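Notebook entry, structure prediction.
Reason for the run: the old model in the group folder had no record of what sequence produced it. Starting over properly, with the input documented here first.
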Amino acid sequence: MRNKFLKTLLLMLVAFFAIVLVGCGTNEPEKKDDPIDNNGGDNNGGENNGGQTVDKGTYTIKVVDYDGKEIGNKTIEVGKYENVYLALQGEFKTVGSIGDYGAWLVSINDSLCDSNWSLMFYENGQQSTNTCDKVAPVKDAVYEFKNECWAAVDYGYGASFDEIDVLLDKVIYNYVKTTLKEVVEGTKTYTGSTYWEMLFIDLFKRAGYTASMVDYKFSSELAAEIEAVDVSTLEGANIGKYYSHAKALGKVAEGFASAYETKLSAVESWNDWVTPFVVFPAKDLNSTNEKLAVLASEAITGDTTWGPDGNLWKLTAQALFADRSEALDLKSYVDTWDSKSQYGTNTSNAIVLLAASALNQDVRDTEKFGKFTYNEKEYDYLAYMFAKFYSEDLGLMKVTEADTATNASTNQIYCGLLAYKVMRDSKKAANIFGTAYEAPTAE
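New structure, fully documented this time:
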């Protein structure tokens, strides 16, 4: 028993000294791991392999907007991000989220946001079958995000849009990004023709398109002039010119509503082109002036001094307050314009679009409106307009000699195009001058 006890004691002493030797047998500092970044990669983008750094390589992410222009291009080290979506978040101005079906991208680097368009994901030139959050970047790969019109893609049951629909969207957004911005930010007075730009901005926002795209900076000169206006002195078209600018600036005078009611009550007839410019503030002001009811019920007897489109101004104004269903005789308008070249401008064509959209009538319906010939080819009305007035070099509508010669307001054409787009997208009447009339729903 005594021998057994001594053996046990001896084994315990041996174990104790072994532990001491292991714990104290070195004076070297504790070895630390190499520093790594927050994404689990090496601090130098490489890989430590037996003391040697191995280059993991790089990949590229490109972003192409609706107009085919590249708005983003970055080369990124493999391993810095776990997947392509995280790379977008880390390297680009990205608006998006992860949902039940993967990454949903709204915009990258302020790319176009429109319900008809979406950012398509490509891997090495081929459209990916995965969402970008499911793809781990690999060496030498090229990942592209292209803003494309999904509505023009045939998914087996026919595409919603054709090339004219796509062109319409492109022209409108080209205008928003270039000409519209330049004109608005350079405007110093409300008495010119820039009321069209203000009406465009108003409808663009009312339709729910990306408001930030048209949040331009107005000049201090324009703001000062608007604030100095004596609204009781406004007459005719200047009522609409003032109101469209003042509304855009958020500077409508407190006394405008009462002064406006006085002007409405004094109206003797609604037969000239200024009618919509006089009446459209009534929609915002919820006016119940009896003169509006008179306008809504009258027949089309507009002034045609400047061409057959004159009566369409009145019809567009009437459509703000009543359900008008007149069939537009586009053939007679076009035939007259072709015989009087000074009227065959994109400005004249614009009022047709404004009136038709206010009546919720699609000018592309060839059964209803027929076909129109240009350079020996037949088109629907909207395609005819693009064939005649679109400049591929500019990506915009051309300023014709007739427009320039008559000092016509060519910015009007974009209001017509926007009104058509809003009608097409919403499948409801769209009026550039305000919320289109909608018949009460039967209970």
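Summary: Confidence is low (pLDDT under 50) at residues 1-46.
The old model has been moved to the deprecated folder.
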